[in-house]
Amino acid sequence: MSFLLNTWYVAAFAHEVRGDAPLARTLLGRPVVLCRNAEGRAFALDDRCAHRFAPLSRGRVADGAIECPYHGLRFDGDGRCVHNPHGDGRVPSQAQVRAYPVLERFGAIWFWPGDVARADAALLPSFAFVDPDANLTHHGYLKTRAHYQLSADNLLDLSHFQFLHPDTLGSEAIAQGDVETAGSDTAVLVRRSTFDETLQPFVADGFGVPPGMRVDRWMDVKWMPPGLLMIVVGVTGAGIPREAGRIAPSAHWLTPETERTTHYFFAFGLPNSMGDAGRELVRYAVDGLMKPFELEDLPMLEAQQNNLGDADFWSAQPALLPIDQGAIRARRIMERLIASEREREGDAGPRVIPVKPAFAAA
Amino acid sequence: MSFLLNTWYVAAFAHEVRGDAPLARTLLGRPVVLCRNAEGRAFALDDRCAHRFAPLSRGRVADGAIECPYHGLRFDGDGRCVHNPHGDGRVPSQAQVRAYPVLERFGAIWFWPGDVARADAALLPSFAFVDPDANLTHHGYLKTRAHYQLSADNLLDLSHFQFLHPDTLGSEAIAQGDVETAGSDTAVLVRRSTFDETLQPFVADGFGVPPGMRVDRWMDVKWMPPGLLMIVVGVTGAGIPREAGRIAPSAHWLTPETERTTHYFFAFGLPNSMGDAGRELVRYAVDGLMKPFELEDLPMLEAQQNNLGDADFWSAQPALLPIDQGAIRARRIMERLIASEREREGDAGPRVIPVKPAFAAA
Amino acid sequence: MSFLLNTWYVAAFAHEVRGDAPLARTLLGRPVVLCRNAEGRAFALDDRCAHRFAPLSRGRVADGAIECPYHGLRFDGDGRCVHNPHGDGRVPSQAQVRAYPVLERFGAIWFWPGDVARADAALLPSFAFVDPDANLTHHGYLKTRAHYQLSADNLLDLSHFQFLHPDTLGSEAIAQGDVETAGSDTAVLVRRSTFDETLQPFVADGFGVPPGMRVDRWMDVKWMPPGLLMIVVGVTGAGIPREAGRIAPSAHWLTPETERTTHYFFAFGLPNSMGDAGRELVRYAVDGLMKPFELEDLPMLEAQQNNLGDADFWSAQPALLPIDQGAIRARRIMERLIASEREREGDAGPRVIPVKPAFAAA
Predict the structure, then answer these.
(1) Do C87 and C208 reside in the same domain of the chain?
(2) If you count residue pairs, one on B and one on C, with CB atoms under 8 Å apart, how many are there?
(3) Phi, psi dihedrals of residue A57, rounded to the nearest 5°
């Protein structure tokens, strides 16, 4: 198992990254420190001073640079040491920490763990509906104790609503719904449609459906590498055309913390034009989902991971059902991308993220 | 170090395994789920759904089958998927979890982790005196943080009563008692006899001996593979023939949880004919032993294991005393049985329990 | 990474080692038991009975020997089994635990983990100023969750006072102080001098300096293998000759507990002739240092170790500054000593401390 490096991952929500205090976060197994410079531009560095490996994240911000809490060296957003308080103040050439390309988009800070030269903002897919400039948005975060692809599997097969979330998201009609799976080399689409079902109060209320009313529901999941998902749930009266219904779009971004833990960022967005009603709806959705996510999905994902142990997913010989088509497509895409990344590097063997790649070239 | 597979181990006490809720237990390093079918017959499966590795033990029981809590597949007592709620309901041929041969005997559920074809109820030794049909029985359970053979060593050399349990089971006379060791290819017998000693109140009261009375005591330990012991303690007045004394028989069953932890099941039984007095005595014995077992034996076994670390017992070069003869015989029997099991499989090297052996043939 | 074995390490403060109860302590990765015999002489044994690996430290002391809590064997200060309570009482020849050469000096118990034949009291450097016979002394102990050489680095570069301990030991003048580094094959000297600074109250009060007074301060650090340091801090009025000032000498002894944890023993001593004032000063110094050491140094050292992981210090490619000269010299001395120890043993490969070297010869 290995991570795709030349791609954008969410490192944090934008509001988490500040100019007056660094934020520590482990991303793809690496300790990273996130901060903003004097102009408010976010940056990401290895959270490890070049001098004696102290965590920069415990330091203070001085003149838009992070000051190491141990001996006072300061590093700017490019990872350059810009201040040595000792002796003649000369900065040794190795006093450089790795800096990651960073983007601020859609209410999130994105970072690129691969080759700096290949980092391209155009490769980031759009999640415009959660762009805070034009939308009312609300965010949720959970730490999942499982490989991030187990979380992607979870989101790509919402049939589990019936069994894992019977009191909130599920109904008896889900497993018997229609499922269409489609996709390309770089995306997977799964549409699950259920007919003539009664929604649990949490979903019914969210869509403004009266108690007990029979409805049709559709759930469109779009997955993109490395683990970026958009889910649109729609509800309409049973037999009524979808155009007459209401929809709720959400973003789900999975970033590996380690091989066995995942940062799960999710967000709802509705147009600014919806005003207070929209503001209330995105809060309702995020707050209401925290309970089933935290109390039902998280323990299940952790239990799966425990049962899988260090074994590769395929070596565990999963029995595949038609409902797994989307998840399997997504896994195959990731396998191709990772293999192609390795090949490009002329290294077909197992691959470890170098601890200080910046130094290899220095 | 490796476990003997073609043998019966206790998986649980019979009362722990129910028809309305599955029981999760790690046995020989494997997650196992125990349950009863609609007829009340106990069964044991790998606690890992064939589909996505979810723990079946967190599911509910439906029509005598266990329903996976993640996507609703149901598995019967033979590990067959008997229900797929999705789409056309077809069950893929790999949707099979490993089922273990199971017996219900002597108040316990026994499972056979080896080849199904070799599982034979006749190989289970008798512990008739704790059969609940004809006896008043009481049970105790402790988790030991040590390899199960360190627990067997403990029970095969009760001289430690004097040093580890001075206030409950021991006396100053024990280390100087007579010890006879005997056995066969499949059993070890150790008889320890002490003479003219004064018992601690816990033992004296249990045997109805007045405070301060001088007695002779004998403790017969019978060990059978893989770690099944019967201990009969007898007490009589000092110099009085044993036939005039009273005895207390107990069963001690050791099942590896992992290489470093052990399920320790123990039970006392007296004939139904003893009525309330017998009922009280078996409770008195089990309840009274919990304290020295838990507060004295468990920390010692854990400390031994910590000092041993991952080293093999023999590589740690123990200094052997005559009191170790029984324990060493038992270890030699286990080594022969494990070596012969490996040879039979044409595999002389180190052996790992396969995660899904049922699939190898499927 | 490996430890130097043929050298003296502090095992405990003298007052911790008693004749009526053994003390358990892990030293260089080994469980060791410390005790005193009937004559009050301290001894150190492997904390692992030769019979069944029980920790001797949980036993009682009987006739100046430690009695194993499991089966009652007794071992004297030379590790010889001097009593077997079982059967004919014969002691098998392997019933011997490893005994370490031990010295009691300077208020501490020192042990020698290497070849017994090379243990030589003359190799122990003097810390006469904390010898309790002639001095008023006070001691502090902390467990550091980092390799002991990271702690030595910390003490060899006190520039960190400014950044890590700004409210107690530091001042804005420290990083700009003068640093002189010197040394030999077996010692490193670092003198840091600061000029015209204002001390924080903790240091000012300790030296009897009025609030706000401008002073010069010098901090002389002497390091000796394997991790024995003497620090003398002196303070005088700004521009006043050092001879007119006051000094505070302290001892800092680092003993590896494991590859990633360290016993940090430190002590202050002043001549008996100083009476109550001296008694109060050594207490003031030790008690006052506990807070910055515990709340500031310990988390930093642990964070450094976490960032370093299992990597070798040099493989992490630290950017070196002039302030690192002392620490680097000390590391180079240790590398030479360890390499030379390995060479002497005709073993150039990685080296593991044998678990029971005494048995190799038996």
Answers:
(1) no
(2) 78
(3) -60, -15
CATH number at residue B260: 3.90.380.10
| In a shared domain, residues A71 and A215 | no
Q: Are C309 and C165 found together in one domain?
A: yes
Interface test with C, best of B154, B317, B331 (most C CBs within 10 A): B317
Domain boundary, last residue among A80, A100, A123: A123
Contact A263, A141 (CB under 8 A): yes
Phi first, then psi, for residue C264 (nearest 5°) are -110, 105
**What CA–CA distance (Å, rounded) separates C263 from C28?**
10
Nearest-Cα residue of chain A relative to residue C323: A86
The minimum CA-CA distance between A238 and chain B, rounded to whole Å, is 20
Closest partner CB to C51 (pick from B162, B303, B318)? B318
CB B337 within 8 A of CB B351: no
Q: What range defines the domain where residue B109 resides? A: 9-123
* Cβ within 8 Å, pair B87-A322: yes
Mutate to test the interface with B, among A147, A164, A192 (most CBs of B within 10 A): A164
Closest Cβ opposite residue C321 in set A86, A356, A359: A86
pLDDT tens readout for residues A267-295 = 999 999 999 999 999 999 999 999 999 99
ipTM of the complex: 0.92
**Nearest CA distance, C90 vs chain B (angstrom):** 9
Residue with tokens 């000269």: C325
My answer on whether A155 and A52 are in the same domain is: no
C108 lies in some domain: yes
Residues 6 or more apart from B215 whose CB is under 8 A from it? Answer: B196, B197, B198, B199, B204, B207, B209, B235, B236, B237, B238
Closest-approach residue (CA) in chain B for A318: B51
B317/C356 CB distance under 8 A:
yes
Query: What digits encode the pLDDT tens for the residues A134-165?
Result: 999 999 999 999 999 999 999 999 999 999 99
Q: A75 and A102: one domain?
A: yes
Give a yes or no: residue B349 inside a domain. no
Q: Do A318 and B52 touch (CB under 8 A)?
A: yes
* Residue A301 and residue A260 share a domain: yes
Interface residues on C facing A, Cβ-Cβ cutoff 8 A: 153, 157, 159-160, 162-164, 175-176, 179, 299-300, 303-304, 307-308, 311, 316-324
Q: For chain B, list residues whose CB is within 8 angstroms of any CB belonging to chain A.
A: 31, 47-48, 50-55, 58, 67-72, 81, 84-87, 92, 94-96, 355-356, 359
Cα separation, A67 vs A21, in Å, equals 11
Any domain includes C357:
no
| Three-state DSSP state, A186 | coil
Cis upstream peptide for C226 (omega within 30°): yes
- Position A277, amino acid: A
Cut 0.90: pTM above it: yes
| Average pLDDT rounded to a whole number, residues A318-337 | 97
**For residue C4, is it within any domain?**
no
> How many pairs of residues across A and B have Cβ atoms under 8 Å apart?
78
Strand-pair category, C178-183 with C188-198: antiparallel
Are C51 and B179 in contact (CB < 8 Å)? no
- Of C100, C123, C146, which closes a domain? C123
For chain A, the chains sharing at least 3 beta-carbon pairs closer than 8 angstroms are: B, C
Answer whether B334's CB lies under 8 Å from B4's CB.
yes
Q: Distance (Å, rounded) from C-alpha C159 to C-alpha C106?
A: 29
- pLDDT single digits (tens) C120-165: 999 999 999 999 999 999 999 999 999 999 999 999 999 999 999 9
pLDDT of residue A345: 80
Q: For residue B113, what is the domain's CATH number?
A: 2.102.10.10
Check B318 against C47: CB less than 8 A apart.
no
Q: B209 with B328, same domain?
A: yes
Answer whether C72 sits within 8 Å of B175, measured CB to CB.
yes
Q: How many domains does chain C have?
A: 2
Say which of C162, C304, C318 has its CB closest to residue A72: C162
Q: Are residues B190 and B272 in the same domain?
A: yes
